[in-house]
User: Fold these one by one.
Assistant:
Number 1:
Amino acid sequence: MLGTLGAALACVAAMPGLAAAEVPRNWQIGMQAAATPVRERIDALHNELLVIITLIALFVLGLLLFVMFRFNARRHPVASQTTHNPVLELVWTAAPVLILLAIAIPSFRLMYFMDRTPKPDLTLKVTGHQWYWSYQYPDQGNFSFDSNMLPDAQAAAQQRPRMLATDNPVVVPVGAVVHVLVTSTDVIHSWFLPAFGVQEYAVIGRTNDAWMQVNRTGTFHGECNQICGNNHPFMPIEIEAVSKEDFAKWVDMAKKKFAHNDRETPAVRMADRAAR
Ligand SMILES: [Cu+2]
């Protein structure tokens, strides 16, 4: 299947020696490789649907070819007067219902799996702003920081992906269940991580939630995918998944590095930025 092929290609691309960041590539087929249980199940449903849709398309193509050959004007000059066939009508009503059921059952199962966060090990609060993201770690010392896109020159100098790298990436431990709370301070944004199967709207005055359990170390990228104004394409998401030990080290470092942010709310910092 295309998805599997794409996953294989993306795995090759992510191998050591090649670029470490898992980003879309030219001529890539399929989707980014799955990095969470949710995305693995999304891929599985996608592959199931691909089989169903391929069989339906082939069946309809077969019927069309049969009619074109068997009932064209040359082979079949006198049209049949048949109007009803109860058995056939029953079949073509019941078959699509059964197909829809076969799609709906795994689809609902997946929706509930995505919706219910297992017992979380960590909470990450994500706030969307025009036009950057800020992150808060409420149960790791409650530090918070802004994450802005790296300018092109800086990204090129550091050999990091253009328009996807940020100055302060989000860091999460591999294997931990991360409960993600998503909100906004201005307009509706959307926190979208393709490799994690997470897409959550950031809505003002409302907290949406999602969860992720990253299964391998690496740097993952996403973007705001709700048109949110002028600089909508310039608010990427960069997540580094690291071992539990490295995460603990990073938390110690981050508490000091972002200590100055602790007394300020994102709204205060935003007013601050506007004044600058
Ligand atoms: Cu946005």
Note: The two ends are 52 Å apart (CA to CA).
Number 2:
Amino acid sequence: MCLVLLTGGAAAQNPTSGQRVHRLLIHNATVIDGNGTPASGPKDILIEDNTIADVIALDPVSLARDGARGGARNGPAPDAVIDATGKYVLPGLINAHAHLQEERGGKPQPIEYELDLWLACGITTIRDVGSDTRRALELRQQSAAGKIAAPRIFVYPMFGRPKDAQAATAHVRELKQMGADGIKILGIDRDTMEAMEKEAHTLGLRIAHHAGVEETNAWDDIRFGTTSIEHWYGIPDAAIPAGVQDFPASYNYNNETDRFRYAGHLWREADPERLTAVLKGMVDAHVAWDPTLDIYEASRDLQRAQTQPWFAEYLHPTLEEYFRPNPSNHGSYFIGWTSTDETYWKENYRIWMAALRQFDRLGGLIGMGDDAGFIYQMYGFGFIRNFELYQEAGFHPIRIIQDATGNNAKILGQENRLGRVRAGWAADLIVVNGNPLVNFKVLYPTGVDEIRGGKTVHTGGVEWTIKDGIPYHAPELLAKVKQMVAQARQHSTN
Ligand SMILES: [Zn+2]
């Protein structure tokens, strides 16, 4: 047990995982805030109950002289201390595109599997964009009350397809009454979209739009005031000169192999000038973009997606079965997937990533979400994969951390409470073993190997995920998931 000597000589212990104390001190941390500013430290972060009470810059000179006695402050000794010497503290990660899932393909999967993985990956908030709404509201309440180990939950129910504008308006009111935080739309007609957005704005509900290949596109989001476009369809669609993608005559949208194969041809058909106008339009209308880069990656590199190292011990058999190519499961479309498909998709990613950077340069708000539980992406791990993909797109690591924290807080309308390491903000923080600005792979809970003094050392991973002031020891959560998976595998092979 690590003991840290504090001002006044009192010794305080590490916190117990899952138990909030009145005063929790994170000592001697290097901090990366969620507002796009560089790392700074050493700092002490004092948490009181569920709020960041103070962020104190330590004097490096006195720290060197007195060891851990730097950062002297007035006030009572903390009840627990996390020694963050050599570690990095970030705001808790916010997953802007999540689905609460207790089943895959009709087979049960324990909710703890997903919740524990999210926390182990440093995710302290999720925006649920479509699940069992009543269950999601119940989990939101239990999480807020600290009754379950879970991120904060914002519920954006899937809107469905109302038959007319009147029905759309009525359905928005109904969802507001149920307690929804926002609404997710997908595959909607223009008149019902206009009506539902109007009512949602009146009632203060935000809107996430998974623009499919449908009647509406990004211009409708711009016109009607969508909060965020999910994924990417609808943006290149709005920039195709012919008005419709050059689909082969045999194309059927409901055939997912067709759908995802030709989605790989979509970005190349967008006219660059028109695309710039669309992106500018989004910026001017404050439409954010949550691209979920991770979730299509199997399309450009199927073998990579199918052989991710954490599958060995952490892939639940229910999810494993769901991922197998099967036309009846959404996203499991890899039947006859070819090197030609992958080549189109590699180009698709290049144009998409360039569009994201252009959107950023124009002043657009970019968030981050993983859409895990589909297409070989595991909860949490898929989210961390986004950091690497944003880096591949050319973004500075500091900006990427901002996308995953402060920017996502803005998308949720929670920027005065979440996404920052700042006094007065909610105590949602992560303590990371290593510097994510050097290597985002340190965020994977399974860690990384480093060479130190000629020896291989296993390090990395999130050490503590603090949500609403409750510290969770991430390695313990991960161990629990491992056991859960081992047990489920035993049962599934019997
Ligand atoms: Zn989704």
Note: The first strand starts at residue 4 and ends at 5.
